[in-house]
Amino acid sequence: MFALDGRSAMVTGAGQGVGAGIARLLAAQGAIVAVNDLDPERAEHTCAEIRAAGGRAFTTVFDVTDPQAALLAVRTFERAVAPIDILVNNAGNGGAEGFRPTRFRQSVPEDWQRFADVNLFGVMACTKAVLDGMCARRFGRVITIASAAGVSGQSFGISLYGAAKGGAIAFMRHLAMESARDGVTANTVALGLMDPRPSGRDLAHTAEQAKHIPVGRLGTPQDAGATCVFLASDEAAWITGQTIQVNGGAITT
Fold first, then answer.
1. Model-level pTM?
2. Predicted pLDDT at 177
3. Is residue 120 part of a domain?
4. What is the DSSP letter of 194?
């Protein structure tokens, strides 16, 4: 079950952390993976890990906030390797400038734009680049990595991030309804607190946070990757328009 042999996937922001974990697991299930990152060295590092494990992976460097760059990257990969069957919109967080928690009262409009560009419009740009081909082939999986911040309010300065992630969640729900009859599913994975390292061993400064999670640990790239493997598979063909909470029980619905 959950085999992805013969499929090809693009994972954005996959040069490190959660994105790298998702790319590794998709490849382990048989998918050819286009590894996207802004940093070519990070992207190639993930590709090298996949190849060392016997998988197939190709570096794909572009900025997800640039729709033309995303379209060109997809077209280039599809001509050289294979059509994109699976898109994982993982790039996000604070974008190239990183994440600095800021309460809304202290924010400036430039901050609003930056979070929206990568977490919402970047999702739209990459989805637009692959969607026509998926619909024409009558198969596609669009998976967006969001956050508990997009579904639950918090008090520690992540309102801009949460707003953009909430927008991405809503976009995926509507996309799912628009593309369902074309064989394309669209789902969101809302992650809780994550340890981005493959080992998942909590750093000292995150151990206290882990105590407040019912299962007693932070999430790992493998947790996110396993969920994406399922949603990308044929077995998940009847699941669309959903937000899957992957958070160790921290938020229940």
1. 0.93
2. 98
3. yes
4. B
State residue 222's pLDDT score. 95
- The list of the chain residues with pLDDT below 50 reads 202
Does residue 2 lie within any of the structural domains?
no
Catalytic hit among 58, 161, 171, 230? 161
Query: What's the pLDDT at 221?
Result: 95
Give the pLDDT score at 206: 62
Cβ neighbours, 10 Å, residue 241: 16
E strand spans, 66-211: 86-89, 140-147, 184-191
**What span, in angstroms and rounded, lies between the C-alpha atoms of 220 and 218?**
7
177 is catalytic: no
Q: How many domains does the chain have?
A: 1
If one counts every other C-beta atom within 10 angstroms of the C-beta of residue 105, the result is 7
- We report the CATH number of the domain holding residue 109 as 3.40.50.720
Q: Which domain holds residue 70?
A: 8-246
In angstroms, the CA 29 to CA 149 distance is 30
pLDDT value, residue 64: 97
Calpha distance 69→76 (Å, rounded): 10
Instruction: Label residue 89 left, alpha or beta by phi (over 0 means left) and psi (-120 to 50 means alpha).
Output: beta
**251 assigned to some structural domain:** no
Query: What is the structure's pLDDT at 252?
Result: 80
pLDDT at residue number 94: 66
Among 136, 133, 22, 121, smallest CA distance to 77 is for 133
Q: Which amino acid is at 61?
A: V
CA distances from 136 to 70, 83, 127 (A): 19, 11, 14
In a domain, 235, yes or no: yes
